[in-house]
Amino acid sequence: MTKALDGVRVLDFTHVQSGPTCTQLLAWFGADVIKVERPGSGDITRGQLQDIPKVDSLYFTMLNHNKRSITLDTKNPKGKEVLTALIRTCDVLVENFGPGVLDRMGFTWEKIQEINPRMIVASIKGFGPGPYEDCKVYENVAQCTGGAASTTGFRDGLPLVTGAQIGDSGTGLHLALGIVTALYQRHHTGRGQRVTAAMQDGVLNLCRVKLRDQQRLAHGPLKEYSQFGEGIEFGEAVPRAGNDSGGGQPGRILKCKGWEQDPNAYIYVITQAPVWEKICDVIGETGWKTHPDYATPPARLSRLNEIFARIEQWTMTKTKFEVMEILNADDIPCGPILSMKELAEDQSLRATGTIVEVDHPTRGKYLSVGNPIKLSDSPTEVKRSPLLGEHTDEILRDVLGYSDAHVAEIHDSGATTPPRKQAAE
Ligand code: CAO
């Protein structure tokens, strides 16, 4: 069966997390992704957070499936020659170097266009043009500068970063969409173009509802925030809202049976207006269905603490899975707090390929997150990440058409490491 991006060749100059997230998606959709890595060391994450000595880390393997790896010193003249040949033959170049790095290597946008006018050059940077454009940026910097941290956490606590990698993986997702869109446009124009995604912009896009609330503040307090019900005045900026939901429907995380021992024995419950009467029935407060202090959403706003305390009395008598079953039978939205252990063991996620087991020659079997985007005509088969430089010779010969003598000349120049020597290291 063919894949959606069959025939698209990607020159993958990415490292760490944001860029590799993007190119892994393209590889899952069928693109031939050639990851260019520095001889000897490769992507820095190969050696970061290693759980098994001298084995590619899970950090690396889980972000670089279905790719091929070539080692190339792009500051070496022969390395530049190979890079030029790769630019000529690839459709897309993706990079997330620090600002100005590609230019300093001698591969400006103008130069790349000259080599291959159809090339799409896609970049992730920390910031867009402006005062911070030259800064290097990592995940938490993006979360803090993109509005996530100032709006996450509790009102009376510190700003918080979230475990979801919205700066890195989130921006990688944005970039992937930009790339396929540019590929689509190229069908009509025949031209490549630049695609850029800044991590600050990506995080702000994901925090869109908070910029909405910032403007609503000018017209009065945010009545769906618990702070309003608690009679606490709003300041000039959108406050942290604890576990309040962003959509205006009151919601809280509530304790379930076993919470004293299990840090994840909790469930998120939403008191959505259309199911209010059913909630009253489930918790045994039938009088609240008609009582003027509880019957309507505006009346409930100032009583949410009392209401959720009462619902929690009920949830504490059940496990989070029992609560999920009972509430869902009545279409009352809720979400058990699932631990990573529970997710890793979840058989339905295994069945859909969202959690996959992958075999690796030096690591053995490990779990990864598969492709969360399912295409009916382009199913994803998750293949292990490449060893450093595993495909160097194959790419020089098959993609660039180099003879054995030419490949040997490239190795001798120090621009690449022959795969056999790399394996010995
Ligand atoms: N051959 C030769 N040199 C290479 C090379 C290769 N194959 N690959 C990289 N290099 C060189 C670059 O040319 C650069 O050299 P100069 O500084 O002399 O021009 C050098 O390696 C460092 O590149 P860098 O600035 O990208 O790397 P860093 O470790 O200093 O910074 C990071 C890392 C992530 C902060 C930076 O790349 C960055 O800000 N990227 C954009 C934002 C981003 O994606 N952040 C998310 C990171 S987590 O996903």
Automatic annotation (TrEMBL):
Homodimer. Substrate binds at residues 247-249. It comes from Rhodopseudomonas thermotolerans. The keyword Cell division does not apply. InterPro entries: CoA-transferase_III_domain (IPR050483), CoA-Trfase_fam_III (IPR003673), CoA-Trfase_III_dom3_sf (IPR044855), CoA-Trfase_III_dom_1_sf (IPR023606), Formyl_CoA_transfer (IPR017659). Involved in the catabolism of oxalate and in the adapatation to low pH via the induction of the oxalate-dependent acid tolerance response (ATR). Catalyzes the transfer of the CoA moiety from formyl-CoA to oxalate. It holds the Pfam family CoA_transf_3. It comes from the Bacteria. Its EC number is 2.8.3.16. Belongs to the CoA-transferase III family. Frc subfamily. CoA binds at residues 17-18, 38, 72-75, 96-98, 104, 136-139. The active site is at residue 168. This is Formyl-CoA:oxalate CoA-transferase. The keyword Transferase applies. It catalyses: formyl-CoA + oxalate = oxalyl-CoA + formate. Pathway: Metabolic intermediate degradation; oxalate degradation; CO(2) and formate from oxalate: step 1/2. GO terms for molecular function: transferase activity. Keywords: Transferase.
